[in-house]
Design goal:
globular, about 130 residues, 5 helices, about 0% strand
Length: about 130
């Protein structure tokens, strides 16, 4: 359970969802949404989120060998916060009837990633140099 392993695992998850959101958002909508009909605004939003996810994945792969630092700690904070709120948002989507039960896979994976990041964050030592 190292920072390097977390960064690699999270990068893979980010790219597995980010790239399809950019290039084939309708495929993911068909899998996860109760009403998969996407408006032009929804398509633009999906693609924007896909760009953010893909950029995060590439950044995490680039930082996988980083030594303890303020920047590495910031990545851990980013993963912890974004994972926690993504899980909460997706639970809300299921409860309100927007998403279907396939969404639980995303909730479980983001919760695991978030808890993993929090555990590593608590152990992260950064020098005050």
């Amino acid at each position: 359970m190292t920072v390097k392993n977390l960064f690699i695992f999270d990068a893979i998850v980010c790219l597995l969802f980010g790239l399809p959101l950019i290039f084939t958002p309708q495929v993911l909508a068909n899998i996860f949404l109760v009403n998969p009909a996407l408006t032009d605004g929804a398509l633009a939003t999906f693609r924007s989120y896909g760009i953010i996810l893909s950029g995060s994945g590439i950044a995490l792969l680039s930082a996988r060998n980083a030594l303890p630092s303020t920047a590495r700690k910031a990545f851990l904070i980013f993963i912890a916060i974004s994972g926690t709120f993504t899980a909460i948002n997706n639970i809300h989507a299921i409860v309100t009837g927007i998403a279907n039960n396939h969404e639980w896979g995303i909730i479980i994976s983001t919760a695991i990633i978030s808890i993993w990041a929090i555990m590593l964050l608590l152990k992260e030592k950064v020098s005050d140099v």
